[in-house]
Amino acid sequence: MKFSRRSVLQSSAAALGALSTRDAFAQGIAPKTYVIELCMRDQVDFGHLMVAPGLARDSTLRRGENGRRAALFFQQNELIEARPNTFLTPQSAVLRPHLDSIAMVELGELTYGPVHGHEAGNPLRSPGRSLQGAGRIPMWNGEPGQSNGEGPTYSTTPTIVALHNAWQKQQHPGTRNGVVIKGTNRAHAIYHFGANRPGAEPDRFQDVGALLRAFPATMQDSNVIKSSAEAEAIKAAMLQRDRRFLARRGLSATNHETQVTESKGLLYRGAPSVFSLPLTAAERAEWSAGVPAKYGRTTIDVWEQAAYAYKLIAGDVVRSVALEVDIGDVHGERTAAQMRDQTLTMALPLVKLIEKLKAAGLYDRTLIIISTADGGRAPASGSSGDEGKNGFVLAGGMVRGGYYGDIRNAGADGDGQRYRYHMPDVATGQPIADGSTGNDRRLPAAPLWRTMAKALQMPDSLTGQFADVASARALPWLITNA
Fold it and tell me: Hey, is 368 helix, strand or coil?
C-alpha cells in the first residue's frame, strides 16, 4: 500500500487534531460532560435508600406505618453498614459496589408549597425560587401543563439540566438540544426551568412515540480513513519518515513514536455504529428486572426512561436528560410496601445507569441526580410532607460517596418519637452538633446547586451570573473537583 507525502501529512494532522481533544481545557473549550436527572414527585422518602446513622444505631426506635413512628421497616440487625456511617437496607443493598461515588443529603433547604409543601420546583433545583413574581420569571414557562395549582413559583436561577444544556451547546456547536421525558400523567408536576437563557429550554416529550420519532436510527462514523490496515500503514510510514528526520537532528523519537501509535486509534476507531433508540426485548428485560411497574402516577416506566437516557448519552446524541416519576399522593401513612416500591424505583435504575456508564467509560464525566420536585417529609410515617427532610442523591465519578448529615431520636412523641435534624456543616460535611426538631437549620440550596454545576465542570464565570447563587461556593466534601 503506497501513500503520498500529502496523504500521510493530511492523515497525521487529522489524527493529532483528534488527539489534542483529550485535553479540551488546554484549548479553552469545555469538555463534554453529561447529566441525567431523575425527578421524583410527591413526598418521596429516601429513608430506605440510605438510613440516617442516628436512626440506624437507635435500639429504642419505634417503627410503624402510622403516626410518629418511624417509617423504617427493617430492624437494627438487618441494616448494612456498607461504609462508615453509610447504612443500606436489604432493598438498597444493590448500591453497595458503587458507594464510593454515591452521596445522599436528606436535610436540604425545605420546600414551602401551600399544600403539604408540594412544589413543582424545589429550592434545591432552583435556589431563590419564590411564590412572588416581582423581578422573577415564571418557572412553568415551557411546560406543557403550565402552572400547577399548588403554589406556582418564580425564579431567576435555571435548573441544572437546563443550564447544562445551554452550556454544552454553546461550547460544542452542533450538539442536539437536551431532553425531558415527562413520564407522568400530570404535565405540570415538575418544572424544568431555563430562566430565559438562550438555548436552555430542553425539548419535552410526554409519550414514547414522540421521543422515538425525534431520534430516528442513524449511522455514526467517526473514522478519518476506511480501515485498520490503512491506519497501520500510515502509522508505519509516519514512523519511518520521522525516525530519519529526528535522527538527523540528534533528537529522541520515543515520545513522538508513542503519540503516533496513539494516533492510529484516532484514524480508525472501528466499524461505524448504528444509533437506535428503541429498546430490544433483551434491553427491556434487563432494565425492568425488579422495578415496580407504572408506580403511582407514572405513565412511562422509570426503567424505560432510564434506558432511553443511557442510550442518548452513550451515543453522545444529547448531553442533558431529565426524567419524571410521580409516586402519587402519599401522606397520612407510609406502609412497608410503599417504602419498598419507592426505594426500588430509585435504586435499581440508578445502579443500572452506573453499571452501564462505567462500562462505556462515561461515568467520570456524568452526573446522575435523583431530586425531588416536591420536597420530602419527616421520618414519621404520618408526616404530611411539610416538615423534616428535603433530600437528593448524587452519583458520578467526581462524587465523594457517603451519607451527609444525621437524624436522631429526640424523645417520645405520642406513639412514636420526635426527630432531631443535624444538617451537614457547610465547611466540613460533618453533622452539626446542635440539631433542630423544627424546620430550621437546613443545608442552604445555593451551595448545593453550585456543587452540581461544578461537578459538571461548568465554570464559576457562568454559574456566578445568577444572583441567588452568586455568593455561594461548591462543597469540596461532596465532589472531588470543587
Answer: strand
- The C-alpha cell 430509585 sits at 346
d(CA 208, CA 471): 41
Query: Residue 106 class from Cβ within 10 Å (0-12 exposed, 13-18 middle, 19+ buried)?
Result: buried
Q: How confident is the model at residue 260 (pLDDT cuts 50, 70, 90)?
A: low
pLDDT in tens, 336-357: 999 999 999 999 999 999 999 9
Domains of the chain, start order: 5-27+222-267 (no CATH), 34-218+273-463 (3.40.720)
Of residues 102 and 186, which shows the higher confidence score? 102
* pLDDT tens-place string over residues 362-379: 999 999 999 998 887 899
pTM of the complete model: 0.86
For cell 466499524, name the residue. Answer: 271
Is-contact 69 351, C-beta < 8 A?
Answer: no
How do beta strands 218-220 and 203-205 pair? unpaired
**DSSP structural state of residue 48:** T
∠ CA(114), CA(155), CA(179), 5° rounding?
A: 100
Distance CA 420, CA 387 (A): 12
Which grid coordinates are listed for 31?
A: 469538555
Non-local (6+) Cβ contacts of 10 within 8 A are none
Q: Residue 409 is inside which H or E element, if any?
A: strand 406-413
Q: Which pLDDT tens digit goes with each residue over 73-83? A: 999 999 999 99
